[in-house]
Amino acid sequence: MPSEATTVRREPLDPSGAGAAIQRWTLTAGPYEASVLTLGATLHTLSGPDRSGRTAQLLLSTDELAQILGPARHYGTVVGRYANRIDGSSVTIDGQNHPLAPTGGGMTIHGGPDGFAQRMWAAEPVEGGVLLRLHSPDGDQGFPGALDVTVSYTLSYAPGAGGELVIDYRAVTNKPTVVNLTNHAYFNLAGEGSGDVLGHLLTLDADEYTPADERQIPYGRTEPVAGTPFDFTVATPIGKSLHDDHPQLAGPGGYDHNWALRARPASGGPARAALLEDPVSGRTLEVLTTEPGLQVYTANKFQGAVTGASGVPYGPFAGIALETQHFPDSPHHPAFPSTELRPEEEFRSTTVLRLGVS
To answer: Which residues are named in the active-site annotation (predicted)?
Structure first.
């Protein structure tokens, strides 16, 4: 059946307060709705119906500016210039070392202390959604090259087929650099504030993952998931093996790892990476991507610092992040897919969030 028209509206996050400078763009298509903030190019909310037609907000989020700028500063944001971890807070490109702004623990995570998640992006409407732009100057957080980035969010709905949110990333540089962009949304298909996600079923299209040290820096190799708590090749409750006595789970207290996805199509289009299902509500989320990796984080360390619209503080396992990406610390591991971007190239990445009911 044909898709229904998508409406797009813009308003301040907080017209009367300190958040007035932050724009909220709301996309509505049938029973599905998404909102995007210009601060951090953030996917702020995403809602859809369950099998009985009841709508819920499916992302962990808050409208309180102090929390958005504090403990929720990465919730739903576009993370860059380099998502995830870079060991030693430095990269070497063409034989030249570039020290990066450190974030602690002997590494730079999520692009540095003033990464893309903390920036105000320019926004403009596009068909079915919103396009956001950011200029990152040469030397930003230590990364070489001036980088011009665009991220678009477009929402569509076709009766009988569910809702689909497409995130398209593009970037160009004037000097060789490294780029790894992702979205850091936390999902709870039962609805934010409804409890933990340990009963959600997760399927990952990955036969290997990248084991890591106690700081979650990969060793530089992949290992089979078969026979380990990392095997989600068939639908498995997230909590089934999360507390197993396995050395890779002890440090992070759950999952905070990168899975090496099965080969992407030769056509360059997105392929499935994950399927998340809530057996109670019937809601499903299929994640498709052009990226080679998927970081899964089960909010192991949450301690109630953020309270959502439901009025419930988010505790451990209140949501799950499914971050499509290149592998962590790739600049130091030549065997990993390269994250280098050169002036004659364009960084292109697409992630599709496909919502439905079963």
So the answer is: 184, 323
